[in-house]
Amino acid sequence: MAKKEEKKQAVSSAGASYTAKDIQVLEGLEPVRKRPGMYIGSTGVEGLHHLIWEVFDNSLDEAMAGYAHAIEVVLMPDSKVRVSDDGRGIPTDIHPKLKKSALELAATTLHAGGKFEQGAYKVSGGLHGVGLSVVNALSTWMRAEVHRKPDIFAQEYKVGKPTGPVKKVGTTKKTGTIVTFQPDPSIFKDLNFDLTTILNHLRQQAYLTKGVKVTVKDEREKIARDYTFYFEGGIVSYVEFLNRTEEVKHKTVFYVAKEQDNIFVEVAMQYVDEISGKELSFANNVHTTEGGMHLTGFKSAITRTLNDYARKNAFLKEKDDNLSGDDVREGLTSIISVKLKDPQFEGQTKAKLGTPDARTAVENVINAELADWLERNPLDARQILEKVLLASKARLAAKAARETVLRKGALEGMTLPGKLADCSSRDPSESELFIVEGDSAGGSSKQGRDRRTQAILPLRGKVLNVEKARIDKMLAHQEIRALIIAMGTAISEEFDLEKLRYHKIVIMTDADTDGSHIRTLLLTLFYRYFPQLIDKGHLYIAQPPLYRIQKGSKIEYAYNDKDKEKILEGLRKIVADGQAGKLKTKNSKPKTSDNEWEVTPVEGVNEIVDEPPFAKASEDETKIAGVAIQRYKGLGEMNPEQLWETTLDPSNRVLLQVTVKDAQEADRVFDVLMGSEVLPRKKFIQTHAKSVTNLDI
Q: Which fold has domain 235-396?
């Protein structure tokens, strides 16, 4: 009672002191350090790499303006990064109003840069003018060096603040800017820059800015590595790169580059023999991952243009339905890039373009240029129309199959599958669905689960490989249909994430080759038909233990060989500390020498390690007295209590959340490993065979 009264007085006191002095004013770059996520999206690995993108974008703006022709990014020891270009160099003269060097203003003041007036840059990816200053604010140290012949100017900073004025430090015969920074470990827990992520991003930028050389150097190891990207073909080369492992439906890549109402529109596209497509959109070279007005204009225009051409050339009859947007984009690889003044992005990370004029510009350009291209390339046009008409027929068949499934569900009152052991909770945020392999594991899971929040859906056999299967064939598969109904979201056009019945969907398969195969088939299903569940973080993989290790009454579980060795090492230490010198154990008796022992088997245990401490070791481990190790071959071998304790109990279990770091690469790998072509899969396996680990886990 006293504690409650004390708390009440504290709250009352705090309320009484709420005056002007309690209002916090963040000055300079303090807002960035206070709320870094507002400026770079997050303080995780993505945010760390965003620092490079911000500095690189400044150099790229110089390239897009025609002043820079080479950009270099160097990964240095101690998590330092250096970005340099051969552009004009950041101005270093004194600002007439603020009486500071323009370089210092750009590095220490939010919304200070050359992106706000039309004279400095015609187009720019660094819309908000916060790039360099944000990087400075989130770095323990930064140095900016400017070459503006004949002079070199430099300034250094610590945690966003200059350590001295801008100084002239030498002479030069070139122009450009060099920025070196070291991220702040108090902001970013992980300071490990990923070379693959950087190469993928900068390769993309090189494709989008043809004629500009982009070099990446990794100097963090003794042997430095360097990579150079330079593409004369621009986004046409990019489309060809994305389709390098695919069977293309027409040889000629459609390409247009045209200015419309002061917006430069550049589009390249080509169809491949695939069900899924690849759409990449950019605004001022910024990858708009959530699309926006330019992508909307492209989708609308291509649908209208192909319908008009199909009607005009009798591919579609009067009674036929129009081709849908999904029909014309099935198997389409497309790059949509616009460059415009004063783009309206949503958020500092610029995931979506909101400029309405971009839609009109793209729509007008595609309507005119694609219609003309189809007339000039009749063979390519015919091959495209054959592809989209096939997609249309498949869509109508799939729609009929889908409606049959949903109508059947509705007639049955959306009856859940009989094999589903549902949970009693109706709150999706606390409900979990475990997809398990076979009836044996299903039985143990049903008995061992928390019935209030955990549902179990056992699958019989291996589900269909949906990589090359259309939706009508997929919905005819009983196990997949049961899963869709259990989740409650429906599928395709009817998909509704709000109707998801469980916010954790957990794939729980055996730790063997068959289990891995089933898990891969399920991942393919979710990636191709339920990507929203992955994007929103609803899909997980359970990690059942591989080993049960028992010594006396003490039982521990190891989830991999590394865990097993760690547990055994701990037991060795206990033996060394407390039982050194003892040779006999309860279930053993000596034979002819101290290092030969007879092992007494224990029922239900696959492996017995029952030797004296420090006896002659096997090749891979030192065996310990009285330790029984059981290797689980499947979930069905565990009793319900063990399954709960190791795999189902939220306080003990290990769940891996499924995420897609690089959608393009994930798409390619799924296609290679799960597609119908054998040769690419064989080549992939041969290439990566030496680096594989946990093959049977």
A: Ribosomal Protein S5; domain 2 (3.30.230)
